[in-house]
Amino acid sequence: MNYRAVMTIYGSEMARWRRTIMQSVISPVLSTSLYFVVFGSAIGSRITDIEGVSYGAFIVPGLIMLTLLTQSTMNASFGIYFPRFVGTIFEILSAPVSAFEIVLGYVGAAATKSVVLGLIILATAGLFVPLRIAHPVWMLAFLLMTAATFSLFGFIIGLWADSFEKLQVIPLLILTPLTFLGGSFYSISVLPPAWQTITLFNPVVYLVSGFRWSFYDIADVSVGVSLAMTLFFLVACLAIVWWMFRTGYRLKK
Amino acid sequence: MQPVISIKNLSKTYASGFQALKSVDLDIRPGEIFALLGPNGAGKTTLINIVCGIVNASTGTVTIDGHDHIRDYRAARALIGLVPQELHTDAFETVWATTSLSRGLFGKPRSPAYIEKVLKELSLFDKKDSQIITLSGGMKRRVLIAKALSHEPRILFLDEPTAGVDVELRKDMWDVVRALRAAGVTIILTTHYIEEAEQMADRVGVINNGELILVEEKAELMRKLGRKQLTLQLQGRIERVPEKLALYRLELSPEGNALTYTYDTRSERTGITTLLRDLGEAGIRFSDLQTKQSSLEEIFVSLVKEGA
Predict the structure, then answer these.
(1) Alpha-carbon distance B144 to B84, whole Å?
(2) Shortest Cα distance from A252 to chain B (angstroms)?
(3) Domain-embedded: residue B302
(4) What are the tens digits of pLDDT across the range A121-138?
(5) Domain membership of residue A125 as a residue range
(6) Residue B128 shares a structural domain with residue B174
(7) Domain end: B222, B249, B271, which one?
(8) Whole-model pTM?
(9) B 138-167 residues inside an 8 A Cβ radius of A
(10) CB-CB: which of B14, B54, B56 is closest to A94?
(11) Is there a contact between A90 and B54 if contact means CB atoms under 8 Å apart?
(12) What CATH number is attached to the domain comprising B265?
């Protein structure tokens, strides 16, 4: 195991993050605060409590998930796409590093960034609404697993994309709608039965539901199912990444 | 002597169907400077990229100091530094950061002292905190060399290192290459500047249309393929070469005042003695004569033409 290479990739990705710290940290924090001002205070005050949780507090796990999914995906996809785009990938490919080490460096850094952002948003949320975390260990476990899964997902997109447009399209056109429709801002039990069934095809439902359970002990689907689905997505992404490196997909001619 | 790189039956067909390499066999000796010459699209970069692990081979094996470059890629790649042809650099990194990054990727412990030494040798040290985007093309080329040297490789690939580089920098670069060779580093370079191969290389390989046409000691190559030209300045002008002298295939200059005779240094009889005698008999007198040895470039051009 070339630990130094892993730490080098990880360190360089984190350094890139620090160079753009303003847009990396400030913008998600700002937009989250806006959500709280609008949905939590302004509109939220007119919405009744959901299973004993105020609406402002209810949306906290969903908001963190929204940031976690989009930031993990965008960070990881950009992290690997950029060297492919400018050609510096040659160095990674010619270095004595395994696919696993490359993934660990890039995905590890992307996941770290989004976990940090998630925790910052959590702290920001604490300023607006009273927070209660029923299962802190599970909360962290879901946070880490989701960050890892979607960083892997982003890595896949970064390998697949052959233009900046494609790089943007998935987070924008797929991830954001799925998150909004995945019960981030409402309990899916408020939906008509037919839509509830359709919603179950949305993977984000399981992530948000499990994560919200770790906060308030309330869930749209059982925690076991959430956990199983999260692990399933993690393994699926790992398998795709493994296949990509094995075949040299879009990396080696 | 055990070759440091052993390439056997290496072929590459790209997905487009283009066959970039056709069954190439090549051994590189430890400590030598090997120049790979060939026109654009001949397969030079493909060959280098396969050895370095950037392109997958279709068939064949590559062994680096006894390590298979696929099965034992860690040991194999750790020995190699690569300076690519294109100026692939991370625009927003500093020179120091990007050079240190390369060292880390190759699993070497941090060594600011060594990085400093490399940067100083390449006259980059005063630019160490500059972002690469602010550097000129020549400086970027130096950065790429610094990156390749940062992990103390025993083999260095230089893919067209002096393309688009000014004279001063080219000189500096060859000084660095000479110093590396003196330190025992094996160097494989591709170049369009044939006089560089002529000056620098111990051996020369010529590749064309994916085939390695020839591998030869440079001196031997020059000797073997070296044609010489004898130019005779005439005292007067002549309108045409006398028919008696047709077998010498002399070339008459447009002005009619010089004759050029091309001969092969390899042959036992160069024909010079008889030519001069026959010229005298034909009444052609000359005021001066000079001989010229063909350069590697001319050898190269004639080889590639023959191969086409």
Answers:
(1) 8
(2) 5
(3) no
(4) 999 888 888 888 999 999
(5) 3-247
(6) yes
(7) B222
(8) 0.85
(9) 147
(10) B54
(11) yes
(12) 3.30.70
CATH number of B183's domain:
3.40.50.300
Contact B86 A87 (CB under 8 A): yes
CA B19 to chain centre: 22
Model confidence pLDDT, tens digit, residues B220-272? 877 766 678 888 898 888 888 888 888 888 888 888 889 888 887 767 778 88
A4 with B104: Cβ contact below 8 A: yes
Whether A29 is in a domain gets the answer: yes
Q: How far is A218 from chain B (nearest CA, A)?
A: 46
Instruction: List B residues 56-115 in contact with A (Cβ-Cβ < 8 A).
Output: 56, 73-78, 80, 82, 84, 86, 88-93, 97, 101-102, 104-109
Q: How far apart are CA A2 and CA A98, in angstroms?
A: 8
Asked if A2 and B107 come within 8 Å (Cβ–Cβ), the reply is yes
Q: How many CA atoms lie within 13 A of A36 on its CB side?
A: 21
Q: Are B106 and A96 inside 8 Å of each other by CB?
A: yes
Is the complex ipTM higher than 0.90? no
Nearest-by-CA chain A residue for B13 = A253
Final residue before a domain boundary, out of B222, B242, B263: B222
The DSSP string of A157-182 is HHHH-SSHHHHHHHIIIIIHHHHHTT
Which residue among B54, B78, B102 places its CB closest to the CB of A93?
B54
CA distance B281 to B285: 10
B161 plus B208 within the same structural domain:
yes
For residues B266 and B209, membership in a common domain is answered with no
Answer yes or no: is B204 within a domain. yes
Task: Report whether pLDDT(A238) > 90.
Answer: yes
Which structural domain range is residue B259 located in? Answer: 227-293
Q: What percent of chain B has pLDDT over 70?
A: 94
> How many whole angstroms separate alpha carbon B141 and alpha carbon B132?
11
Question: Which chain A residues are closer than 8 Å to B73 by Cβ?
Answer: 96
Split into its structural domains, chain A has a count of 1
Q: What CA–CA distance (Å, rounded) separates A117 from B59? A: 48
CB atoms within 10 A of CB A36: 21
Same domain, residue pair B31 and B165? yes
